[in-house]
Amino acid sequence: MKWKIILPVIAILLLGIIIIAFIFISIPPTTPPSQQGVRKAIILGSANDFYASESEDDFNTGFQSNFSGDSGRWVANATNMYGGPDSVPGKDGNPGALHLIANAFPFSIGYQNFEYTYNWTNYHSLIEYAYYNLSAWVNIPTFIIPTAAQYPGARVGLRWFGTSGVIRTDWSSGLLTTAGQWEILHVSGVCNNASGNIITEMQLVLSVKGNMTHNDELYFDDVKIDKWIAVNVTNPTDPNPPPNRIDSDGFPAQALHVYWILRSHGYTDDNIFFMLYHTNDPVIDIKAGDGILNDLIGAVIDVENNDVNASRFKKELNVTVSGSFASGINSKDQLIIFMTDHGSNKVLGDGNATFHFEADNSFITEFEFYDLVNDITCERMMINMDSCFSGNFLNQNKNIGSSWYNLPNTLFVSSSSNVFSWYWINNLNGDGFAGSWFFHQFWEQLDQNKSVAIAFNNASNFIPWRQFAPLIATQSPLMHDNLGISATWSFNSDPSL
């Protein structure tokens, strides 16, 4: 009788064990913690020196900028065009634009090589090591026929003179037509005496080169110029600063901005390697009016001040160095690299880019950086390069073509192309923040859970306080997405940024 009771119980127990075993077999194995992906970041802020900057308001708000009157300061080279400042509507719809008309005979096609120039040094001082940003709006209703590559249509330039004549001319890109709309042209040039000649004169140039039919016309309006003092871009490793050099919040504030956003989205200090140069700046205030007067408080900085140099940064990016930050990155991890400082395309002498370290005037080249990053094996990586000439840094063609370095697991975002990037030295401005005009907006958008693509587009279209064009026109930020995820990758995607 007992066996009749025991045998069914045993059978039930065995069946239960079989069912439980089957359930465990059906469940996919859990990835061991050592193989789970971790979000990691290395943040580098390696400078805190800025120089004074100012717009030339006496020019920008005057009649010589908007052509509201013929001041006699703009001079034509008297070729086969005629016209000048007159009452035709300008960009803002108000009377006053530089109206130029082709005057070719016979009435068919005529080659134009026309320039309107303004001798800046006749009316304003010229400051060594300053760089000047010239912008102007142009309207071309018809089409300028280029007879060759050296005839690029309408463009603006900065022409530099020495005692022996013209030293060089810095040119914007050219426009052949704007289909009757207003488009902006811009160019930056440095008063750096790089050629060995002493620069004694600068001219603003409005130029037209190409073929135009008789009575074809175009317009220039709202010529603006800003003067900035920066690191000596001819040789950043041996700066020769003007007397108004100051330590300021700008660069360390931008690095701190990224750090605090990552922290607020779940990144831990164990997984953030933070290198920050802020000597003589014990108080950093990222944003005005946010109630935080010193954003350094509470930040865990791994390497700071004099130890923030190229040697240490290269070591931390080297996967073969035991104990380096890169050596702890696993194949399932994701990595953010954010770098902010001065950049140059002059140091190497071949137009390729370098990234500067203020602590010891060292630098890392784009080739060194690529070799180190290329050895890091991880699931995905976002690199942010925040410096002048930053788009040149991972592009094999210094003229910024399509030849990006092959980093297949990488999304790269730069604050500019192969031109200057712009920053607020502190938050005492209408935008209310210190740091990068581009990356402050980019990371603010990411902080609001926008995708990388939306953040990039919104930041590119940002018009800074008292400026005249969006950043896409003045410094041309770049994005190269080898992963194809920029439209979906954000702090609330899966996997998340």
Radius of gyration: 29 Å
Which fold name corresponds to the CATH topology of the largest domain? Rossmann fold
The CATH architecture name of the largest domain reads: 3-Layer(aba) Sandwich
The class by helix and strand makeup works out as: alpha+beta
Overall geometry? elongated
- Order of strands side by side in the largest beta sheet? 16-15-1-17-21-22-25
User: How far is the first residue's CA from the last residue's CA?
Assistant: 67 Å
Residue-averaged pLDDT: 83
Poorly predicted regions are 27-35, 231-244
Q: Can you tell me the CATH class of the largest domain?
A: Alpha Beta
Strand % is 25-35%
Number of domains: 2
Total strands: the figure is 25
- H/I helix tally: 9
Classify the helix fraction into a percent range.
10-25%
Q: Sheet bearing the most strands, described?
A: 7 strands, mixed
Explain what you see.
There is one protein chain. This protein is of the alpha+beta class and 497 residues long. The protein has two domains: 37-51 and 244-481, Rossmann fold (3-Layer(aba) Sandwich); 54-229, Galactose-binding domain-like (Jelly Rolls), CATH 2.60.120.260. It has nine helices and 25 strands. It has helices spanning 2-26, 57-60, 63-66, 250-264, 310-317, 366-374, 437-447, 452-460, 471-474, and strands at residues 39-45, 49-50, 53-55, 74-76, 81-89, 95-102, 109-119, 130-139, 153-162, 165-171, 182-190, 201-213, 217-229, 246-247, 272-276, 303-304, 334-340, 343-344, 354-357, 362-365, 380-386, 410-414, 423-424, 435-436, 478-481. The strands form six sheets. The protein has a seven-stranded mixed β-sheet, with helices on one face. Helix 4 (250-264) packs parallel to helix 7 (437-447) and helix 7 (437-447) packs antiparallel against helix 8 (452-460). It is elongated, with a radius of gyration of 29 Å.
